[in-house]
Every structure is written in C-alpha cells, then in structure tokens.
Amino acid sequence: MDKRRILIVDDEAGVTRMLKLFLEATQAYEVRTENHGSRAVAAVREFRPHLVLLDVVMPDMDGATVAAEIGADPRLKDTPVVFLTALVTGKEAGGSGRNIGGRPFIAKPADPDRIVELIEKHAKN
Amino acid sequence: MNLWRFISKTVSLREAASAIFGISTLLPILLLVSFLSRHDLLGKLEAQLSLLAAVALAVFGFVALRRMVDRISTLVNALGAPTPVEEAGSLGGIESPIPGLGAVAEIGQLRDFLSRLLVDLRNSTERLEDLVFKQGTLNEMVEVAARIPEMKDLLALVLERTMRTVRAAVGSIMLVDRERQNLRIVAARGVAESALADVGLCVGGGIAGRVAQLGEPIVVDDVEADPRFAKDCHPAYGGGSFICVPIRVGDRIIGVINLAKREHGVASPPTSPSFTSTDLQFLNALMTYVAYALDNARLLEEALQSAKQLREVVHDQELQLTVAQQRMVQAEKLESVGRLAAGVAHEVKNPLMTLLTGVKFLSKHLPASDETVSLVLEDMSEAVRRADRVIIGLLDLSAPRELDVKPESVNPIVAQSLLLVKHDLDRSHITVIKKLEDNLPDVMLDSFKIQQVLVNIFTNAIHAMPEGGMLTVKTYLRPPAGAGGGVEDDTIGDLPTPEGAVVVEVDDTGTGIPKDKVKKVFDPFFTTKPTGKGTGLGLSVSRQLVEMQGGMIDIRNRAEGGVRVTILFKLPRGGN
Questions:
Q1: Most-buried pick from B209, B213, B216, B335 (CB within 10 A)?
Q2: Mutate to test the interface with A, among B347, B355, B357, B394 (most CBs of A within 10 A)
Q3: Running DSSP on this structure, what letter comes out for residue B512?
C-alpha cells in the first residue's frame, strides 16, 4: 500500500521537523515540509498531498490565505486541509465541532497521536 | 298700709307722684268743702288761717314733688335711659312732692340700672379680653410661623393655639391632596387618634370638603341637625357648634381647619354657645398668616425631601462609580495581561508543540525497558501540558467574549456543575450538601459561562480538601437592600443590590486562605495551590465572567474554617 502524502506548512522549523519525524516513524506517511506560507500552494501543486497540515499565523502568508488559494484552484480544491493553530482559547481547543473557514483544526501544542487521528479521518483515499 | 308699702318696698315713681299729689291737695280741698258747708266759720280768723295754711301746704308739697321729679329726670337724662319716672312725669303732668318716697324709688331704679350696666360692662370687658387674646394669638402665630420650619410641629401649634383662643374642644386641620383630590387629616386634638385613622374626605364631600371646594367658611350651630355634616367621617365630633374655615394661599385652597364644641366663656349665657362673627374674623385672619407659613413649610419639606433623594442618588452613583472604577482598573489590568498573553501564546505554543511531538516520538522509539527514560519523558510531557494550561488560561482571560445571556434558573446550573465534578468529589471523599431554595426567580445569565465559573469554584474547593470534607452549596433569594428579611450572609453586605438578588453560596471545610492573601485571590497568576496544581487564572476569569453578566463574586474565610464563595445575580429592575 502506498504511503499517504502529507504536507506540513509551518514557519516554525522545529514543529515541521519534529512532526515529519513522528509521522514518518509510523511508516504510514510520506511527509514533506514547507516553512513559508507563500510557497505552500506551489508545494501542494507539486507534491499533490493527501492532506495538508497548515499553520495559521505565518509571516509571509497566513494559513487562511493559503487555504483559500488551494480552494480556488480547481485541481487542488479537493485537497483536505487541517489547521494547526496557536491562537485558540482553551474552550475552542477543547471543542471538536469548531472549524476555521469550514476546515477542521487542532490547537498547538497538539498530541501527535491526535494529529494522526485527524489525518486518518480527513485524508483523501 | 300704702305708706308702709312706699317705705318698705320699691314703688314706681308714678305711684309715688300720685300719692304725694293726693296727700298735698286732699287737706285744702277738705277744708274748702268744710267751709262751704259752714259759711259762718269763714268769718273766723282761725278758719281763714287754717285754710291759708292748707293751701300753702298743698303748694309746698307740689313744689317739692316737682323738684324731686326734676332731679330724677335730670339724673336719668344724664344717664341716657328712659325710666318709669320720666314716663310718669311726662304722662301724668302732675308731680308728687314726697321726697322720701321718691328717694326710695330712685335707689331701686338706680340699683337695677347699675346691675344692667355691670352686666354690660362685664360683657364688654370679656369681648375686649377676647379680642386682645385673639390679637395676641395672631401676633404670636405670625412670629412663630416664621420660626418653625417643621410642618408637623407648626400644624400642631396652630391647632392648639386656635382651639384655645376660640374655646373649641375638638379640632383638626386637613390638607388638600392635589393628586388624590381628597382631604387628609394632618393634625387633630380632642379626638382619639384611632378615630381619625381612616378619615379621608373627598374634596366637595361633607362640610370640610365643601369649604375646600368653594373656599367659603361654614358655621353650624348644631352639627347633629345639619345634613351637610359627614358624620360617618367624624364620629368623635358628636353634636354642638362647628366651624370650618379654608386655608388658602392666593386663590389656591391648601386645606381647612375644623373646630367644634365651643365651650362657655365667663359671662356667656348658660345655653350652648355658637361660634361668633368675631371668631370667624379671627380665624380668617389667622388662616391667612398660617396658610403662607404652611405653604413655606411644605415647600421646605419638599425641598428637603428632594435633597435627601438627591443625596441618596449621589451616594448610589458614587458607589456604582467606585465599583465601575474598580472594574475598569481590573479590566485594564486584564486587558494588558491579555495582550501580552496573545503575543506570548503564539511564541510559546510552537516550541511546546516541538517539545511535545519530540517527547512523544522518543517515548515511542526508546526501549520500553528503561523505566527512568519513561519517567523522564512522562515528566517532560506533563511539563508541556502545564505550560500549555497557563497559556490557555491567559488566552481565556483576554479572549473577546460573546455572552449568550437569557433568563435562566440558577438551581439546574448548580446541579449540572456539581455533576461535572462528581468524579473528583467522590475521589476526594467529599460530602456534598445541597440547600437549593425552590421557586427562585430567573436571572439574566449565560448558563455555559456560569457553569464554567461554578466548576472552577468547586474544583478549588476540592483542591482545598485533599483529605475529604464537606461542600455545602446553597441558593436563596436576597431581598432588595434595606428591605430587611433577615438575610444571614454578611459576605457581600457592602455590595449594592437595590433590586434584590439570587445568591449562590459555596462553603468548603478546607484549609482556607491565608489572611494576607485573601485580597489577592482574584489577581491573575495568584494561587495558593502547590506549584503545578493551579495556574492562578481561574478566579480572575470567573470574576470577569460573573461581572460581565452584572453579577458579583466574593470570597472570604469562614469563621468556622474553610472558605465561603458567594455569587450574586441581580434581579432585573422591577422584576422582584
């Protein structure tokens, strides 16, 4: 079975590096990371991930804009996006039904096992 | 006999004059008749002398009588009253020359005259005294009215002095209530208080009502016989004389004075006396003065009342201002903490994410047999979660909140919150006592946020009782401030709740808060819990949530040990 392709976009290199390490260690995913929001859409076009883990606050282009561009591209619009965000309150983080712009999110610092659950739930087959 | 009657008794001048004239003319007539029958005797000198003496005696008697009558006439004229003597003189035209008998009659007449004069004099003196007394009362009232600012004292004094001056046994002063269009008794004397309790006349009804309506005084000789008198309203008046005089300021009638049962004066006849025209004049004059004084007193009273209300409003405003200022200071403090938190959160959460993911990775890929490594990784994991809790607390504090406020019943929220911590309560062997008052009115609140607050408070209580204890949760209605009702709590006695409030009280039997730290419990990051057990943000957030909904929260140590948390939700205005 082919590994699922996961694109992680976060300006924090430590986060992307550590998540890549964790996910790849599961042997279930092929992970690519991108630390610039502005290069994220190009990375999606090129990598064609089954799911994008997308940080919200990034200096050059924020996650919401990246998601909008993915959604606007007919060839990419079906790519699932899960937001990773540090700007949510405790209550929002605890709630599971909330989303950002219609997309699911998970609050940092997130338990990587929980991230795996989300990937399994939302990734394209 | 006749002579004796003249001497011993008082005779009229007409009788005396007739008697004297008869006696003085009888002797010469008898002599003349005697000499006419005996012509021979006329030649004798003795007879002639006798006749002459008799005529002289008659003339003398006539002159004496005439002089007496003249004297009496002069005297009577001088005194200015017609007397029987004068009538006798003028009618008879014949005067009695008997001075002794005249003097007796004169003395009798004079005595009668002087008696009448004395009665007149007494009456005049009494009237004069009465007028002087009334004038004195008027003067006193004018002076006193200006000095007594208290309406009640002024009314009582006016009534007392007026009743004394016109000798009334019963009296009352009624003032017109413009709004209700009725008369209200404001002062009364000679009537039992209980008899007046329910007295209230409509303007236009009864005598007082008519006087208040028409502005004309009414004097009644006997109230029993007067159909206008509203006896139902005045059972204590009974019969007797009655007077009602309007009290007016310009064209405006502000009230009436009722006076009844005039008492006898020193020289009054023994019949039941009525109020006189002098009484009426006096009352009219007095009421003119009194009206202005009463009006001034009323204005002063109204002004004082307004000033008092104003002071209360100012005090209330000051209190609210102080509370608002305190909240503002707190809000500013929280806002700056919030701004800082939002910035810090982003910067801290990313490294925490890296750490947590790293720790998880290591825990999965290091040999499981090494317990030390597992322990280290678990501690690291817990440290990350702790740091995250602090950040989440800070974000909670600063996050903009949208409240979903609607009328809610407090008791179900309390019960639900207790359910949420049931597991922790059981684990810590804590007994829960619920005293939730039935039928509490709904209050405006966001039930989810209040549940968050209550869970926080219950969690604090559980942490304060690690060895078990008792958690008492009480809800009750607190009546409006100043309404009494025996509210036993004093924990939030200084918080203004003019509308009344629903109170939630949570008592624990834990360790309490050190005295010097009680005031700091709402400060962000303040905690009495061991390191790692609390962020110090729970109560800050709780207070913010409660106050945003118009409620209040207070925390104090209980005298018997432990802590009492009181949350108060104001009732909507007018909704009690």
A1: B209
A2: B357
A3: -
Contact B486, B295 (CB under 8 A): no
Q: Quick check: B355 contacting A, CB < 8 Å?
A: yes
Tell whether omega for the bond before A109 is within 30 degrees of 0, i.e. cis.
Answer: yes
CA nearest B400 in A: which residue? A89
- Tell me how far apart the alpha carbons of residues B302 and B290 are, in angstroms, rounded to a whole number: 18
Residue for token pair 């009480």: B474
Task: Tell if the CB–CB gap between B357 and A108 is shorter than 8 Å.
Answer: no
**Cα four-point dihedral sign B544, B548, B549, B551:** positive
Residue A84 near chain B (CB below 8 Å): yes
Round to whole Å and give the CA distance between A42 and A72: 13
* Lowest model confidence (mean pLDDT) among B69-73, B411-415, B546-550: B69-73
Q: Nearest by CB to A12, which of B350, B360, B365?
A: B350
Q: Rounded distance, CA B149 to CA B294, Å? A: 9
Residue A91 contacts B where some CB pair is shorter than 8 Å: yes
Helices B84-92 and B13-37 cross at an angle (nearest 10°) of 30
Q: What is the ipTM of this complex?
A: 0.86
Of B8-12, B159-163, B368-372, B451-455, which gets the smallest average pLDDT?
B8-12
Residue-level pLDDT at B238: 60
Asked if B147 reaches chain A (Cβ–Cβ under 8 Å), the answer is no
